[in-house]
């Protein structure tokens, strides 16, 4: 492909950014959207089958020398996130060496959970990675971590488990922003296709602005496809989630990387380097 392959997280959390994305602004085969769960998108980005778009912020940190971050885009929260939950059979305070089942769709949240349980709560859990099925996970473990739509659905149909929001726990311990996904670009793509990248980035900012300004339309569609109530989606999109990437978001993310490096989850604390659309030069 001569154009650009762009990731698209296959969860409802991303809808305000993609609802008004105009693929027809680009020529034939110029831009392709690849819908997948975050762990698969991370893999595609690392292998080069995806050029740019949202990936787990942990994946950016793991491979930051190969990527840059696109400005003003993220999936973040400053407090509860609403779709990343640890479910447990007993209160967290009663668990010391619990067996925790981790979803195989995530990279950021599974490592955020390790930081929260081990570093902040002083626990010593044992982890198993599994497919996102709460019933199966809980039949084999004391607790289960789900993200995205699996977590939303499980929270609506919770048969009585204790439920912990990881955004809320991170905020309670640090007071900082937590960024779960960033829009990354492979450095070679930024170098080889600066003009197309500028147009793609511009289109993302346009669709984000319109999606947030016309949230009622985004919610009408998500309700039709997924269920839930209007107040629920309003709170999720406009209360819990933030799609910006400010200096404060960056500070929170770099602290997350420092905590991850302390636990040996990252080889070193990653530096966040933001792509500058104005300085990009066309490849010669
Ligand atoms: C808020 C969320 O953020 C996400 C969590 C991710 C992760 O844990 O790796 C990656 C992308 C985001 O979709 C969510 O999925 O609920």
UniProtKB/TrEMBL annotation:
InterPro entries: Menaquinone_biosynth, MqnA. GO terms for molecular function: hydro-lyase activity. GO terms for biological process: menaquinone biosynthetic process. It comes from the Bacteria. Its EC number is 4.2.1.151. It holds the Pfam family VitK2_biosynth. PANTHER family: CHORISMATE DEHYDRATASE. This is Chorismate dehydratase. It comes from Aneurinibacillus soli. The lineage of its organism: Bacteria, Bacillati, Bacillota, Bacilli, Bacillales.
């Amino acid at each position: 492909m001569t154009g650009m392959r762009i990731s698209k997280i296959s969860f409802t959390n991303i809808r305000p950014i993609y609802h008004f994305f105009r693929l027809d602004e680009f020529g034939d085969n110029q831009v392709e959207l690849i819908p997948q769960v975050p762990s698969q998108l991370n893999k595609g980005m690392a292998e080069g089958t995806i050029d740019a778009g949202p990936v787990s912020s942990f994946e950016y940190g793991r491979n930051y020398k190969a990527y840059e971050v696109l400005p003003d885009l993220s999936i973040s929260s400053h407090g509860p996130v609403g779709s990343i939950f640890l479910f447990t059979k007993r209160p967290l305070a009663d668990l010391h060496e619990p067996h925790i089942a981790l979803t195989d769709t995530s990279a950021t949240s599974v490592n955020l959970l390790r930081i929260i349980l081990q570093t902040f709560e002083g626990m010593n859990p044992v982890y198993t990675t599994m497919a996102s099925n709460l019933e199966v996970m809980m039949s084999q473990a004391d607790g289960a971590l789900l993200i995205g739509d699996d977590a939303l659905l499980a929270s609506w149909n919770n048969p009585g488990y204790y439920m912990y929001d990881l955004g809320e726990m991170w905020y309670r311990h640090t007071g900082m922003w937590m960024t779960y996904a960033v829009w990354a670009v492979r450095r070679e793509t930024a170098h080889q296709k600066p003009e197309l990248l500028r147009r793609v980035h511009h289109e993302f900012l346009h669709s984000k602005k319109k999606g947030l300004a016309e949230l009622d339309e985004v919610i009408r569609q998500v309700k039709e496809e997924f269920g839930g109530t209007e107040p629920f989606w309003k709170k999720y999109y406009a209360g819990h989630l933030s799609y910006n990437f400010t200096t404060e978001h960056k500070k929170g993310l770099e602290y997350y990387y420092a905590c991850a490096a302390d636990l040996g989850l990252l080889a070193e604390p990653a530096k966040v380097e933001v792509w500058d659309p104005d300085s990009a030069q066309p490849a010669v």
